[in-house]
């Protein structure tokens, strides 16, 4: 879809409509009959009544949340507008891992009845974007052919664990079930078109008026206008317009529908078909039903097959919603048919000339047809004929058949062109044409009826092709249409569809632009490291294998020795996720004690649990204070990980603030891991403040886990209001004991026998005594395997890492290099160190100037029988020692006056020097 | 190729030796480590520690050269060279890394994006890699200790963190001369460092040192002019050395002072520069002369260039130092001391005006033979600014001995116990 405006630019105004009634005396809440919403700057008002299906503002502009409105209520002041809803889910809202449970590819317009309890069914009424049409499709019935985009289909329900067949009762009865006031349709079944207060703009004009032709004209005009202006409008707006208009239409329909047995979608569809087949004009519902029932079995199946196959294609074009469905649903479809039928005859007469244009129209989404149809219904009988006259629909309607035979190959090419053509064609076509655009669905349905079951397959394709056809070159279409004419049998059906099409076309303009696929702007360069030409070699021998397993980066199967901490964190996060609340936790511990690893493990387990549907889904985000250049970058990173937006820090902070404080409905819990918390410190501490404040917001559903090294960080660096928000949920990871370290190594090695038992114990004891850092432990083991490998040539070696190897590794890593360095220093350097000590002893201080030391040095060299060195050389010696940090020196610009200190203890120096002499 | 060019390459570190001398085990360790990174994709971190001139860079370059000769490795590693003296903060370092890795946000030589974006980009890039499929990156951080002074040690943390997690394989190789480098690392950074250190501490004996000198001086076997090759290499045979005890003494002195190659190369370079077409062989005297140049005291050299007045002032300062035991002095004191000398003993030196003496005093300050003890901001009259002498007694006396035509009364004054 092309998004022209950002959501922010559309400001909607919500007003209660109808008389308030007291809903709950205690809470002083009032119920309302309906809600009027309008877009600022536009007169049109959409009315939303309980029982309708609504779109609710969500994170994704393109796919707002869907729900059924149960009731409205507000407080005394009427300021708060609330609504109770029954949620529906789109497939995209189902957790990724559960999508497979569906067991088939989803219909793009498919939604699921939500039976879970995790989502609050109370929403802010001001998050309502508009209304939408939802149709229940019985389990064994295929989805209707592509219709208008505004119609969504419910087939299954989702209880957070599995998809189940939806009990049709749920769909039908919901209005009645709303306690205070069952949502009554605003308009009685027979309501005159003028009664619908809802639609605005083009829709309004399209509303049924006594004179159908006028109406249609108006509609078409508005349509074209709409198409032109569509570019400017935000999609949302456009959507809401559609939905609004549809709403009104659907309301009428539903009102009429009520009580009729034909409610179930399947039946409705059949209704249409049967009606199409039966040329008779106005029938009573009962009659229709009877007919329908007869034909049901056959036709339904056929249709469904075609429909399902065609759905995907139609979507591409932006005509995703099939007008047929909407038509079918309404039990009063019968009424429409008559006039359509009559129109057909006329259509035939003027087939070719208009055909081309019509084709082009045909691409326009079919939803419009729906709404248009619905609007017209009341006047149908009267108008039908005129309509048909005006609209040269035949060619279009016929096209599908011709297609079957001839155009399958072409269709492929056409498909590609479709997107482009859609727009242009619409713009070019004049108002009248707009009215009569045949919808793909219509085509399909007509074709269905015509052909026998044996042709099902081809039909499926045809449907697709027919949809495409409009974009093709006019000449072809004309040909097709002519061929179509020959077949007279099912023309009635065709006519019907045409009739609908004409109406729908009124809608077309608005929809089309939104459906188009935006050329994806080339995103930023993808960060990646070039891949290697030769794949990495796998570990060859046992020591290699052990080394790979001991690398810190290898993720162990389980985290031993942190069971208690794991359980605590798990419980904490799980409870928050279950309750849908927020909270903070502070975790401290010296480096290498498994803090981050434990949390990752917890998250893995929780993800698994949520996959198993034991807990609601949640989202995990991780930031690290060390991995950002500035504390405020935290906002940017969080936002980017949440929504994939790239904005500046300030803007990100604002957006996050909004996100976490606004009562956006149906938010999943976010688990945020903040590693190296201390680096997020700023003078005002606003980053930390926000991080800890958000979870306390009512709607945030944010769990913040923070990690730092020191236990008393909150007390030391946080100001009171920050520390207070962090709360007292704290946990401290103790350094590992030697037994734990040993267990860690053993579990990592996992039966790879590379170490002697004693060697392992030595490593773990040594590390536990020094730091308890598991990383150190693993690194030493790794180094020991290397040493073992190098010494493997020795005949005595067993191939196992022994004590001696570990000792060597420990020596390498932990022994101070100072003593070796002194031992390897040149004679003058050693002498200088002795001079330093001598001077220190003389002064009784731990500090002397170079000048003083140099005097000693000279004296010492005389004692040693060495030629005394010059001052320059002496300084050079001193600087070398300083560069190694055996000595600590002042800045060298002080020259001879720079002060000298030892960086090693005097005893070490003497010990090292003594060793050299011996 | 002339032998001159050959030596200049050898002594100016433009060419790697065939084999690093005296560091075989370290060489093996490092080569093995990098080979595992390159071939197996194992992430590692290592520090090469050794005093300046001990051959850290040479060792690493030898290892890299050897590594890249392996066929599998050749096109499979991405070396990134950083130097703490060039990349003085993380922002610059990140740009440089991105540029050398030639990531996708690089156009030409320019790296786009802010500091934060660059960091995020690099981390993302490294994160996307995995052990078996991405090319190993070798981060070579020269003057590693300077990177530890960057703010928060962000770069080190991230590089070492990558080396300890299952991301693109990296090897972080730090070169430093500081033995206490680990203490510079922040505790989180330190924990992520593998604590492998390769120490280059030469325990060269004097005999080995002499061998080194010879091998450094000898021409390579593939030298085109065989006659010259024979003559030259013959001239630096052992017997020549041992027949010159002076020469051995000089070399011993150098050995005592420092064992590193860089100072040796300096000495040999100076000696070789005395070889010419008319004198096509290196003589022991050349080495002696070179050594003399190397060992000379720089300050004594400066003193030779001073005027008599300035020298007198220095002597006055020396006396003041003796009297006050190293306490600072000011111009007025020096001037008084100088005037005393003039009144009592001087025969050869005129009385200088005070401004002239002041000028000489300032010149000494400019030469940094004396240093002001006050902070420069303090507004004290020049005459009373406290100063300290940056010269040793021995330097002054030595300079006086060698000073051309130094008046005897000045010499006597310098040597007398008290002004």
Automatic annotation (TrEMBL), chain A:
PROSITE patterns associated with the record: BAH (PS51038)
Name this polypeptide is given: Origin recognition complex subunit 1
CDD domains reported in the protein's UniProt record: Cdc6_C
Ranges annotated as biased composition (Polar residues): 515-531
Magnesium among keywords: yes
UniProt xrefs under Pfam families: AAA, AAA_lid_10, BAH, WHD_Cdc6
Chief location: nucleus
GO biological process: DNA replication initiation; mitotic DNA replication checkpoint signaling
Protein family per UniProt: Belongs to the ORC1 family.
Subunit structure, as described in the record: ORC is composed of six subunits. Component of ORC, a complex composed of at least 6 subunits: ORC1, ORC2, ORC3, ORC4, ORC5 and ORC6. ORC is regulated in a cell-cycle dependent manner. It is sequentially assembled at the exit from anaphase of mitosis and disassembled as cells enter S phase. Interacts with CDC6 and KAT7/HBO1. Interacts with LRWD1 predominantly during the G1 phase and with less affinity during mitosis, when phosphorylated.
Sequence ranges of Basic and acidic residues compositional bias: 439-460
GO terms under cellular component: nuclear origin of replication recognition complex
UniProt KW keywords: ATP-binding, DNA replication, DNA-binding, Magnesium, Metal-binding, Nucleotide-binding, Nucleus, Phosphoprotein
All copies of domain BAH, residue ranges: 46-169
InterPro entries named in the record: AAA+_ATPase (IPR003593), AAA_lid_10 (IPR041083), ATPase_AAA_core (IPR003959), BAH_dom (IPR001025), BAH_sf (IPR043151), Cdc6_C (IPR015163), ORC1/CDC6 (IPR050311), P-loop_NTPase (IPR027417)
Molecular-function annotations in GO: ATP binding; ATP hydrolysis activity; chromatin binding; DNA replication origin binding; metal ion binding
TrEMBL record, chain B:
Domain of life the protein comes from: Eukaryota
Organism the protein comes from: Oncorhynchus kisutch
Keyword Nucleus: yes
Family label: Belongs to the ORC4 family.
CC per GO annotation: cytoplasm; nuclear origin of replication recognition complex
Role played: Component of the origin recognition complex (ORC) that binds origins of replication.
Protein name: Origin recognition complex subunit 4
Complexes and interactors: Component of ORC, a complex composed of at least 6 subunits: ORC1, ORC2, ORC3, ORC4, ORC5 and ORC6. ORC is regulated in a cell-cycle dependent manner. It is sequentially assembled at the exit from anaphase of mitosis and disassembled as cells enter S phase. Interacts with DBF4. Interacts with POLQ.
Record-linked SMART domains: AAA (SM00382)
Pfam families in UniProt: AAA_16, ORC4_C
UniProt GO MF annotations: ATP binding; DNA replication origin binding
Gene responsible for this protein: ORC4
């Amino acid at each position: 879809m092309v998004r022209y405006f950002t959501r922010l630019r559309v400001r909607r105004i919500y007003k209660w409509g109808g008389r308030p009634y007291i809903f709950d005396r205690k809470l002083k809440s009032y119920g309302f009959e309906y809600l009027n919403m309008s877009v600022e700057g536009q007169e049109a008002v959409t009315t939303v009544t309980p029982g309708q299906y609504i779109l609710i503002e969500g994170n994704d502009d393109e796919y707002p949340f869907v729900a059924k409105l149960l009731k409205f209520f507000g407080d005394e002041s009427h300021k708060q507008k609330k609504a109770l809803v029954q949620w529906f889910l789109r497939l995209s809202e189902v957790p990724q891992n559960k999508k497979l449970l569906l067991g088939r590819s989803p219909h793009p317009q498919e939604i699921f009845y939500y039976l879970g309890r995790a989502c609050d069914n109370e929403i802010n009424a001001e998050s309502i974007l508009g209304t939408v049409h939802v149709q229940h499709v019985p389990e064994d019935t295929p989805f209707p052919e592509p219709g208008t985009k505004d119609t969504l289909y419910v087939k299954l329900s989702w209880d957070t664990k599995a998809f189940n067949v939806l009990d049709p009762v749920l769909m039908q009865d919901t209005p009645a079930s709303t306690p205070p006031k069952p949502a009554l349709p605003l308009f009685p079944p027979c309501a005159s078109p003028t009664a619908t207060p809802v639609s605005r703009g083009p829709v309004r004009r399209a509303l049924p008026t006594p004179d159908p032709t006028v109406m249609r004209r108006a509609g078409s005009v508005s349509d074209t206008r709409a198409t032109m202006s569509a570019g400017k409008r935000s999609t949302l707006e456009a959507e809401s317009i559609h939905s609004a208009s549809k709403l009104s239409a659907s309301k009428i329909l539903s009102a009429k529908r009520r009580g009729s047995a034909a409610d179930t979608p399947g039946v409705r569809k059949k209704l249409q078909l049967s009606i199409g087949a039966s040329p008779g004009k106005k029938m009573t519902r009962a009659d229709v039903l009877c007919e329908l029932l007869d034909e049901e079995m056959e036709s339904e199946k056929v249709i469904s097959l075609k429909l399902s196959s065609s759905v995907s294609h139609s979507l591409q074009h932006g005509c995703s919603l099939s007008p047929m469905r909407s038509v079918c649903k309404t039990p009063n479809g019968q009424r429409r048919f008559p006039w359509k039928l009559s129109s057909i005859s006329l259509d035939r007469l003027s087939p070719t000339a208009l055909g081309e244009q019509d084709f082009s129209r045909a691409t326009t989404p079919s939803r419009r047809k729906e709404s248009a149809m619905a609007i017209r219904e009341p006047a149908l009988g009267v108008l039908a004929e005129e309509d048909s006259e005006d609209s040269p629909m035949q060619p279009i309607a016929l096209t599908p058949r011709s297609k079957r035979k001839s155009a399958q190959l072409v269709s492929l090419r056409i498909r590609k062109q479709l997107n482009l053509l859609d727009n242009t064609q619409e713009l070019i076509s004049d108002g009248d044409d707009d009215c009569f655009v045949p919808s793909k669905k219509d085509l399909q349905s007509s074709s269905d009826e015509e052909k026998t079951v044996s042709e099902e397959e081809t039909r499926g394709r045809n449907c697709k092709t027919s949809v495409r056809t409009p974009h093709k070159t006019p000449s072809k279409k004309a040909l097709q249409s002519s061929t179509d004419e020959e077949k007279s049998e099912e023309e009635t059906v065709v006519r019907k569809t045409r009739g609908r099409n004409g109406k729908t076309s009124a809608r077309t303009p608005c929809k089309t632009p939104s459906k188009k696929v935006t050329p994806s702007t080339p995103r930023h360069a993808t960060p990646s490291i070039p891949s290697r030409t030769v794949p990495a070699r796998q570990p060859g021998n046992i020591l290699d294998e052990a080394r790979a397993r001991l690398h810190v980066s290898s993720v162990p199967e389980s985290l031993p020795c942190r069971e208690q901490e794991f359980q605590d964190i798990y419980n904490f996060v799980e409870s928050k996720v279950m309750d849908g609340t927020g909270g903070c936790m502070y975790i401290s511990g010296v480096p290498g004690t498994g803090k981050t690893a434990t949390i990752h493990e917890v998250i893995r387990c929780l993800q698994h649990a949520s996959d198993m549907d034991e807990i609601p889904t949640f989202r995990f985000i991780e930031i690290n204070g060390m991995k950002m250049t500035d504390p405020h970058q935290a906002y940017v990173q969080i936002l980017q990980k949440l929504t994939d937006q790239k904005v500046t820090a300030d803007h990100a902070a604002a957006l996050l603030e909004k996100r976490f404080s606004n009562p956006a409905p149906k938010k999943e819990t976010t688990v945020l891991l903040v590693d190296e918390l201390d680096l997020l410190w700023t003078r005002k501490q606003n980053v930390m403040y926000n991080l800890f404040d958000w979870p306390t917001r009512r709607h945030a559903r944010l769990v913040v886990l923070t990690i730092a090294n020191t236990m008393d960080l909150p007390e030391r660096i946080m100001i009171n209001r920050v520390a207070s928000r962090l709360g007292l949920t704290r946990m401290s990871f103790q350094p590992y004991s030697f037994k734990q370290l040993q267990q860690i190594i053993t579990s990592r090695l996992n039966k790879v026998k590379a170490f002697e038992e004693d060697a392992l114990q030595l490593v773990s004891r040594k590390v536990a005594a020094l730091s308890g850092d598991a990383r150190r432990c693993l690194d030493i083991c790794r180094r020991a395997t290397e040493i073992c490998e190098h010494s493997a040539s020795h005949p005595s070696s067993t191939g196992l890492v022994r004590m001696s190897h570990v000792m060597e590794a420990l020596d390498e890593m932990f022994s101070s290099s100072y003593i070796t360095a002194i031992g390897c220093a040149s004679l003058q350097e050693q002498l200088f160190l002795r001079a330093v000590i001598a001077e220190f002893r003389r002064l009784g201080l731990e500090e002397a100037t170079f000048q003083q030391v140099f005097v000693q040095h000279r004296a010492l060299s005389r004692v040693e029988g060495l030629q005394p060195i010059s001052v320059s050389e002496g300084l050079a010696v001193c600087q070398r020692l300083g560069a190694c940090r055996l000595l600590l020196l002042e800045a060298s610009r002080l020259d001879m006056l720079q002060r000298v200190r030892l960086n090693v203890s005097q005893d070490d120096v003497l010990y090292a020097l003594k060793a050299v002499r011996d | 190729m002339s032998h001159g060019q050959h030596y200049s390459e050898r002594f100016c570190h433009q060419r790697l030796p065939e084999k690093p001398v005296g560091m075989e085990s370290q060489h093996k360790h490092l080569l093995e480590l990098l080979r595992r990174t390159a071939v197996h994709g194992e992430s590692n971190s290592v520090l090469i520690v050794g005093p300046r001139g001990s051959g850290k860079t040479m060792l690493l370059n030898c290892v890299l050269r050897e590594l890249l000769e392996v066929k599998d490795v050749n096109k499979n590693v991405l070396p990134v060279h950083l130097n703490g003296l060039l990349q003085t903060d993380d922002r610059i370092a990140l740009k440089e890394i991105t540029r050398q890795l030639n990531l996708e946000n690089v156009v030409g030589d320019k790296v786009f994006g802010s500091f934060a974006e660059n960091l995020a980009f690099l981390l993302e890039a490294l994160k996307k890699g995995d052990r078996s499929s991405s090319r190993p990156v070798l981060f070579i951080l020269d003057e590693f200790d300077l990177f530890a002074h960057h703010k928060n040690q962000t770069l080190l943390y991230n590089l070492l963190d990558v080396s300890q997690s299952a991301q693109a394989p990296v090897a972080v190789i730090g070169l430093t001369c500081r033995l206490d480098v680990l203490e510079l690392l922040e505790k989180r950074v330190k924990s992520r460092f593998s604590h492998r250190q390769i120490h280059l501490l030469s325990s060269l004996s004097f005999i080995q040192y002499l061998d080194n000198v010879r091998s450094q001086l000898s021409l390579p076997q593939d030298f085109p002019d065989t006659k010259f090759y024979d003559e030259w290499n013959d001239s630096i045979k052992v017997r020549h050395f041992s027949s010159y005890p002076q020469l051995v003494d000089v070399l011993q002195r150098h050995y005592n002072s420092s064992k590193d190659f860089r100072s040796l190369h300096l000495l040999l370079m100076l000696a070789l520069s005395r070889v010419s077409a008319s004198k096509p062989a290196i003589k022991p005297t050349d080495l002696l002369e070179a050594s003399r140049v190397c060992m000379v005291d720089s300050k004594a050299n400066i003193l030779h260039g001073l005027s008599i007045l300035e020298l007198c002032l220095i002597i006055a300062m020396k006396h003041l130092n003796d009297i006050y035991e190293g306490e600072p002095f000011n111009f007025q004191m020096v001037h008084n001391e100088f005037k005393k000398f003039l009144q009592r003993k001087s025969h050869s030196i005129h009385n200088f005006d005070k401004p002239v003496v002041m000028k000489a005093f300032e010149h000494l300050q400019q030469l940094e033979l004396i240093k002001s003890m006050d902070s420069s901001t303090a507004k004290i009259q020049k005459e009373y600014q406290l100063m300290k002498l940056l010269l040793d007694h021995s330097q002054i006396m030595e300079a006086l001995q060698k000073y051309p035509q130094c008046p005897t009364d000045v010499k006597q004054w310098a040597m007398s116990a008290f002004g």
